[in-house]
Each structure stands twice: as structure tokens, then as C-alpha cells.
Design goal:
Length: 527
């Protein structure tokens, strides 16, 4: 038995002085506690993980988690944006209950979180990488976090409360720090829960210098709804996250020409030019060797209209996928370390993202909407001795806390909204599993101009209410219209399904006590 598997003190089955085994008071009935390595990227679309979708990229290391474990095919978030998603994950509660409703919130770190409960039960806890909750992390033995959203090159970190510098590319640095903590930082006599939170592939999708030439010769097929006209969908019409209109040539697409002749009107040009300054001279040299010829050709070609839109799409895809390639390589490094350290058989490994992302569907980048690409999030879990294969049950990021707690043998607090999906990971089929999902997005008015909305999704249908400076309902039949192009709300023949979905929406709002949302649809609430 490896030393790190051993537990000390009260976590061992107590043996009384007369040799009889006393009643086990440890939370998991004396079984060896499972460690947790939880890897979460920022804005990683399921479309760009080959375990889910083979059109764009091969991700063999991330896929390994799926191949040796469980692939969740119906995994969703509760509020599709970073800070709120992270708060839902830590607390197991929807946004209105954990108080972090949008990225301008500050997380109340005095509240109950699963790392705090794990720690109380004898786990060592650590978070490395993007934190994004404004207040300092609580409930961790060790934290080494990026400041705010973080940057890709030579990022400053806050390590256990003190600001430090780093050298190199964020995904490599975060993986190095994770391995270093596993090897030398933790107390090897205790079980551990390590959260590895990548900055990548968040905007502006800056690749590592060694990956710059990947996908150069690839042309990606446009999504079928790239030229969506948003007919019948007012909120979709009014967003500001379109590749055509809102993606900045300099900031997002790296066209910061040395001659300073390319100018843009999104307000992001200057930030785009500053981004370059975060790199070392060697990094800049590699960067220039790649982008300068692309910039020169772009200036010569003088593209306009659809040609420009499609050029932007190809540029976006290439950079985003290069960033994914680096994540995949670093997931591989971490798995290799776990293997070599003998930790694979007593560690649950999770790969997920804080939400999904648009790869040009509806003509978009970014997230926020309750539409499928951003409501869903990848979720792959390798549980030693657990299920190998797919689970199609509805799971949501509010379920992660209860799942991890149950795995650790810690009682799941009653006030958590989520439900442990550990039985599914063990190959069981729990009865009475949820058949519908609740969603609520708040960040408006704000960047990308996605209106506030809440809604319900069942296996086949989705009902959404956009509110605040708009009052607009949308209904989708996901079986007939998986790309959500036809809003059926108010159309003849859909009265009964609308009534059923409204009833389900209200039931969920009451269950979760989302009282503010209930006020917004009070005509639906029974007396
Ligand atoms: C930044 C980005 C946005 C992005 C939000 C939220 N702009 O503000 O494009 O939607 O983060 O992202 S940027 O100019 O700073 O890149 S999240 O992942 O943190 O939710
Ligand atoms: Ca994010």
C-alpha cells in the first residue's frame, strides 16, 4: 500500500482496547477515502473535445478520462458565466441562493462550500489557477490563483495571499503548480481534493508559442446557422457577441500590425496591442514569426462582407483550437503524473468547463444564453472501479458539490440544491432522478448584451423568459429544431405543451425558492 493511501487518527477504523472493532465513526464507513482531482477549463466547448465531437480537434488525453470512465451526455450549468458557475459549483446552490449572480458580484466566502466540508472531514484542499470570485478563497489549505481573469503569458498569481510572478504560458504554469503541490506541497497522510482551474481557452484565445502553427492548413466548415437572422428571437437579435460585428480584429484575432494601420471600432484595439507586451522577447519573436505574414496577407486581401466574416471565423477557430491542444497536452501531463505517483486507483478525476461556448453557431462566440451550446458543459469523470460508458441523465453543475461530498463520505447538507450523481458513476440507475432543469442568467446590462433570462428544459422542450428591459418568451422543440432557430411560443398547437412547461418552471422556482423570478411570472404561480 502506498504511504499516501494511509489515513491517520480518527479516520482509521478505531480498535478498542479489548481488540473488538468499535463502531466506525468515520464518515465513509472506514473505506479508504478517494482523492479528487478536478480539472476545469474556462469556456471549453464540448464541440471541441473529441470524446463529444470529432469535427474539429483530437483531444486524446481528455478523451482518456471519458474512455476510462463516464461521459455525461446531458451535462448543464445553472448560469452560463464564469463567476456564477464557480459559485454554483462550490456551494451546490443556484445563483440566487449563493448570492453570486453575475461577474460583478463578490463571493461571500463565509458561506458553506464543499471544500470547507471536505476539509472538516480530514481532506487537504487546494485550488490552483483561475478563481474569479473577487473575495479571497476560503476552505483551502493552499491556493495559488490568477488575479481576476488572469492572462496567458507570464501571469501574476496570488499564492496563499501573497502576490507572485510566473514565467511562461498559463496552462503549463498551472499544471506545473498542480504537480508540484501533489508531489511536494500536500500532507501525504491525508486524502486530498485538488482543483486545477485553467485560464484557457478564455478570450482572447492566445496560443502557446509551440502550438502557433497548428491547424494552419485546416479550413473549418461553417456551422449551418452561422448566418442566423434571429427571426422571432428578439434577445438573440440584440446580443453583442457576433463574430461578424463584435469580434475585434486586433484584440481577438491578433491583427496588431507594427505599422499601426489596422484600426477597429469595438473599443478593444488598444487592449489588443497591450496584450502583446505581456510576452518576453523570445515569445514575441515566435508570435511575430507566425502572425506577421498573416497580418501582411490580411492587409493585401482587403476582405469585406461574407469573405471577411468567414476569414474571422477561420482565424477564431485556429487560435481557439491551438489553445485547446495545449490544455489537452497538459491534462496528459497531469494524468501521467498521477499514474507515476500511483494515484490513479484512488483518485476520482473530473474534466469539465465553467460553461459551454459558441464555435460560430448562430454566428457567435461567448456564452450566457440558455441555448444548448452555452447551457451545456462537458463533464467527464473517471472513478476507479466506476462505470465505463455514457450517462444520459440530466446533471447540472449544482450537483458537483453533493457528488464529491458523498464520494468522501460526508453528509450532504439539506440546503444544497444539487443532487449527488455518484450512483450514476457507480453504474446504478437512481429512481426519481430529475427530468427537468432550471436556469437563470442575470448579467445585464453588460458586455455582450445578453438579456436576463430564466427557463426550464425537459428532454424535448425548452421554455425561456427574457426579462428586464424586454418581456419575451421562447419555446423550442429540441427534437425537431436542435439548433433552436424556430421560436414556437404563442404558435397554434403549442398551447398545451406551453402550459405544462410553465407549470414545471413554477414548480422548480418554488422548489429552489427563486422568489425574484417568481415575481416576474406571478401570473403563472397558483394561489
Ligand atoms: C471578459 C470577456 C468577455 C467574457 C467575460 C466573461 N471580455 O469580460 O468576452 O464574456 O469575460 O467571461 S474581455 O475583453 O475581458 O476578454 S467569463 O468566462 O469570465 O465568464
Ligand atoms: Ca468562463
Amino acid at each position: 500500500m502506498k504511504k499516501e493511501l494511509l489515513l491517520t487518527g480518527s479516520a482509521l477504523i478505531a480498535v478498542t482496547s479489548c481488540g473488538k472493532q468499535a463502531k466506525d465513526t468515520t464518515p465513509n464507513n472506514g473505506k479508504k477515502p478517494m482523492n479528487i482531482v478536478y480539472i476545469m477549463s474556462d469556456d471549453h466547448s464540448y464541440q471541441t473535445i473529441s470524446a463529444y465531437d470529432k469535427r474539429y480537434i483530437q483531444t486524446p488525453n481528455i478523451d482518456r478520462i471519458a474512455n476510462e470512465g463516464t461521459r455525461f451526455t446531458n451535462s448543464f450549468v445553472a448560469n452560463s458565466i464564469s463567476g456564477p458557475s464557480r459559485a454554483c459549483i462550490l456551494t451546490g446552490k443556484h445563483s440566487h441562493a449563493n448570492g453570486f449572480t453575475d461577474n460583478s458580484s463578490t463571493f461571500d466566502g463565509s458561506q458553506q462550500t464543499y471544500p470547507k466540508l471536505l476539509r472538516k472531514a480530514g481532506y487537504q484542499t487546494a485550488v490552483i489557477g483561475k478563481w474569479h470570485l473577487t473575495s479571497a478563497p476560503t476552505g483551502f489549505d493552499h491556493s495559488d490563483i490568477l488575479i481576476g481573469q488572469g492572462i496567458y503569458y507570464n501571469a501574476p498569481f496570488i499564492r496563499d495571499g501573497k502576490e507572485t510572478t510566473s514565467k511562461g504560458y498559463a496552462t503549463n504554469v498551472i499544471t506545473d503548480k498542480a504537480i508540484e503541490w501533489l508531489e511536494n506541497g500536500r500532507d501525504k497522510d491525508k486524502p486530498f481534493c485538488l482543483l486545477v482551474h485553467h485560464k484557457a481557452p478564455h478570450r482572447t484565445w492566445m496560443p502557446d508559442t509551440c502550438d502557433l502553427d497548428l491547424f494552419d492548413d485546416k479550413t473549418f466548415e461553417l456551422p449551418a446557422n452561422f448566418y442566423d437572422d434571429y427571426e422571432g428571437r428578439q434577445a438573440a437579435k440584440e446580443q453583442e457577441m457576433s463574430i461578424s460585428k463584435d469580434m475585434d480584429l486586433v484584440y481577438d484575432l491578433k491583427m496588431a500590425d507594427k505599422e499601426n494601420e489596422i484600426h477597429t471600432s469595438t473599443g478593444l484595439e488598444e487592449a489588443g496591442r497591450r496584450m502583446y507586451d505581456t510576452m518576453t522577447p523570445e515569445e514575441k519573436a515566435a508570435w511575430d514569426a507566425h502572425y506577421d505574414p498573416i497580418i501582411a496577407k490580411f492587409k493585401r486581401d482587403k476582405l469585406t462582407g461574407k469573405q471577411l466574416d468567414e476569414w474571422k471565423y477561420q482565424r477564431y477557430m485556429r487560435d481557439y483550437l491551438r489553445v485547446i491542444h495545449s490544455i489537452d497536452r497538459n491534462v496528459g501531463r497531469l494524468l501521467d503524473y498521477l499514474e507515476q505517483a500511483g494515484l490513479m486507483e484512488n483518485t476520482m478525476i473530473v474534466y469539465t468547463s465553467d460553461q459551454g461556448f459558441y464555435m460560430g453557431e448562430h454566428g457567435w462566440f461567448d456564452k450566457r444564453f440558455m441555448y444548448e451550446e452555452s447551457f451545456r458543459t462537458p463533464l467527464l469523470v473517471r472513478l476507479p472501479g466506476g462505470k465505463k460508458g455514457d450517462v444520459d441523465a440530466f446533471v447540472q453543475n449544482i450537483d458537483y458539490a453533493p457528488t464529491i461530498l458523498e464520494l468522501a463520505g460526508v453528509a450532504v447538507p439539506e440546503d444544497m440544491h444539487g443532487q449527488s450523481f455518484l450512483p450514476w458513476l457507480r453504474g446504478e440507475h437512481p429512481a426519481n432522478w430529475r427530468k427537468s432543469l432550471y436556469y437563470h442568467f442575470y448579467e445585464y446590462p453588460a458586455e455582450h448584451a445578453v438579456k436576463r433570462h430564466y427557463g426550464v428544459r425537459t428532454e424535448r422542450y425548452k421554455l425561456i423568459h427574457f426579462y428586464n428591459d424586454i418581456d419575451s418568451w421562447e419555446l423550442y422543440d429540441l427534437q425537431e429544431d436542435p439548433m433552436e432557430m424556430r421560436n414556437l411560443y404563442g404558435k397554434a398547437g403549442y398551447e398545451e405543451i406551453t402550459r405544462q412547461l410553465e407549470k414545471e418552471l413554477v414548480r422548480l422556482q418554488i422548489q429552489y425558492q427563486d422568489t425574484n423570478a417568481m415575481k416576474l411570472n406571478k401570473e403563472l404561480i397558483p394561489d
